[in-house]
UniProtKB/TrEMBL annotation:
The organism's taxonomic lineage, starting at the top: Bacteria, Pseudomonadati, Pseudomonadota, Alphaproteobacteria, Rhodospirillales
Protein name per Swiss-Prot or TrEMBL: Molybdenum-pterin binding protein (Mop) putative molybdenum transport component
InterPro entries in the cross-refs: Mo/tungstate-bd_C_term_dom, Mop_domain, Transp-assoc_OB_typ1
Organism: Magnetospirillum gryphiswaldense (strain DSM 6361 / JCM 21280 / NBRC 15271 / MSR-1)
Keyword Cytoplasm assigned: no
Biological processes, Gene Ontology terms: molybdate ion transport
Keywords for this protein: Molybdenum
Length: 67
C-alpha cells in the first residue's frame, strides 16, 4: 500500500481499549506513545492485537504546541 502521507511512525501496539463503536489503540513509538481512536470495525478488519508492529500514519493540516 502506498500513501501520500509522509509522517509514518513505526511502533508496537501496547494497548487496545474497545468501546461499542470506537476503540483506543495505544502504540509505543520508541518510548513515546501515540493513541489513535478508530472504529471497532476497523480494529477487527485489521486484526489488531497487542504486541503487533504497526505504522501510525499522521495526516494533519495543523500542529499545535502549548507550554
Amino acid at each position: 500500500m502506498q500513501l501520500s502521507a509522509r509522517n509514518a511512525l513505526k511502533g508496537k501496539v501496547v494497548e487496545i481499549s474497545r468501546g461499542q463503536i470506537v476503540g483506543k489503540v495505544k502504540v509505543d513509538v520508541g518510548g513515546q506513545f501515540v493513541t489513535s481512536l478508530v472504529s471497532v470495525e476497523a480494529i477487527d478488519e485489521l486484526g489488531l492485537k497487542v504486541g503487533e508492529e504497526v505504522s501510525a500514519i499522521i495526516k494533519s493540516t495543523e500542529v499545535m504546541l502549548a507550554k
